[in-house]
Structure to design on (508 residues):
């Protein structure tokens, strides 16, 4: 994949081709028509309720999902009487909730099983979660018709969803630019597509004949603190942007409330949307609970989140947790690491994601990740080491590289806790990149077995495999030369994504 920015003429062609696919394809045309029909249904009278109930009942799969959602713990009635009819579901969930859920399920049905299911799944979850944030914001708004904010929020992630499913190479290019830390999503999508994701969403929704108030709500906000809205349309635009930002945050961490990102969101949106820390906590909690029920109703399991770093590491290891280095693109570093490691890692993430989405076995996923780490980062030896309950040891199960058979046989150490680099990494669930293993402070933390077996290792990586605080093992890979180049943030994110796929495959 190239990192050069396409010329203006090329971006115009990309945008035009994408619009033709989205609006000219028969299946997408049908999706747009169905979405427009549901959006038009009004809640102001009995006819609207009848129309929505009739629409849902006419689709057996949609009926089943709405009823399943109605019978989740979050909505179950005090009498625990099962909900068996759509009219009862509408009464229990509320007209606007069922309407937004039906729209969400239309997107899931149309896109979830596409060729690039892994990437699409990420964007679908963001859209679904954003709709729940919008719903919670509408509950506390004094604007008439505020319930429409949930629909505006659902469509806020429409463009990444469509690009992931219809122009996946462009999607990967945009994601790589954003991961590099030098471009916002808006800037990256403008460079690659010739228009921002938000502008693309507006164009598609307008083509689908969606009401103007929803189309306008997709427009980008300025990057500064948001002012109090003067009208309902402006407020819905703010809520749509805030909802997607919250959805992205909730996808990243199990404890979003205390994160720097949450503080930044509060600083940007708090005054405009009448939010303080307590209300933000309540909103996030309600959305997380609602998301569990929604995914359960669709037979979708939530994707794993990347955990925060542990705090029990020695300072020398905290400095080695994958956070330094500058990116270059051609040739190799003196250590042997390819300068286009980011592109190689990104390709590996996409391959592994698709492998899992298509039902790949655990061993196949682990081997694919090991191969990606080995080749993309230029290691001479790489292994995955898992706990063996019978022997009370961690033992290498798969290995690649020079003299791999001998090194795999010798790569074993006691499971009992010890204050060495490997146990510290697992106990703190900290991903480590050691640039110079010969430094005294690092050598002091290396166990004797490692010094004997891999006496020529000068730089190496340790990626613990921890599921629910259970230490399963780790990935290890090394080189015989130091790695002064470090690991830049975009590569860090991709390495964590690879590990996340293994964790998801290993989770019970």
């Amino acid at each position: 994949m190239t990192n050069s920015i396409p010329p203006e003429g090329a971006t115009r062609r990309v945008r035009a081709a994408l619009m033709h696919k989205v609006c000219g394809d028969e299946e997408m045309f049908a999706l747009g028509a169905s979405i427009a029909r549901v959006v038009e249904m009004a809640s102001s009278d009995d006819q609207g309720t009848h129309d929505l109930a009739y629409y849902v009942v006419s689709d057996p799969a949609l009926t089943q999902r709405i009823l399943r959602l109605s019978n989740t713990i979050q909505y179950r009635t005090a009498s625990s009487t099962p909900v068996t009819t759509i009219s009862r579901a509408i009464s229990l969930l509320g007209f606007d909730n069922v309407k937004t859920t039906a729209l969400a399920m239309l997107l899931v049905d149309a896109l979830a099983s596409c060729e690039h299911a892994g990437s699409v799944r990420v964007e679908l979850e963001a859209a679904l979660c954003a709709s729940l944030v919008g719903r919670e914001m509408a509950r506390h708004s004094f604007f008439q018709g505020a319930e429409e904010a949930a629909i505006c929020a659902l469509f806020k992630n429409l463009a990444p969803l469509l690009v992931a499913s219809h122009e996946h190479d462009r999607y990967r290019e945009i994601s790589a630019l954003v991961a590099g830390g030098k471009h916002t999503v808006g800037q990256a999508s403008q460079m690659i597509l010739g228009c921002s994701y938000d502008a693309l969403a507006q164009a598609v929704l307008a083509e689908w004949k969606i009401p103007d108030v929803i189309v306008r709500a997709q427009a980008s906000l300025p990057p500064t603190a948001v002012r109090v809205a003067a009208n309902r349309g402006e407020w819905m635009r703010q809520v749509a942007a805030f909802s997607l930002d919250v959805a992205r945050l909730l996808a990243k961490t199990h404890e979003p409330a205390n994160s720097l990102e949450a503080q930044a969101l509060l600083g940007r949106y708090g005054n405009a949307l009448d939010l303080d820390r307590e209300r933000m906590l309540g909103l996030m909690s309600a959305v997380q609970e609602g998301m569990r029920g929604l995914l359960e109703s669709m037979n979708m399991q939530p994707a794993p989140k990347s955990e925060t770093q542990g705090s029990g590491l020695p300072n020398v290891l905290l400095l080695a947790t994958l956070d330094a280095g500058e990116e270059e693109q051609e040739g190799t570093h003196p250590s042997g690491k390819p300068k286009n490691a980011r592109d190689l890692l990104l390709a590996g993430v996409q391959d592994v994601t698709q492998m899992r989405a298509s039902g790949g076995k655990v061993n196949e996923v682990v081997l694919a990740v090991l191969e990606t780490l080995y080749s993309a980062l230029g290691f001479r030896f790489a292994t995955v080491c898992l706990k063996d309950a019978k022997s009370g040891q961690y033992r290498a199960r798969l290995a690649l590289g020079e003299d791999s058979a001998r090194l795999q046989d010798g790569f074993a150490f006691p499971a009992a806790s010890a204050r060495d680099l490997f146990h510290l990494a697992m106990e703190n669930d900290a991903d480590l990149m050691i640039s110079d293993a010969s430094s005294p402070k690092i050598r002091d933390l290396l166990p004797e077995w490692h010094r004997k077996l891999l006496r020529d290792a000068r730089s190496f990586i340790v990626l613990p495999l921890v599921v629910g605080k259970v230490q399963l093992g780790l990935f290890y890979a090394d080189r015989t030369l130091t790695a002064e180049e470090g690991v830049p943030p975009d590569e860090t994110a991709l390495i964590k994504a690879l590990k996340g796929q293994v964790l998801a495959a290993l989770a019970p």
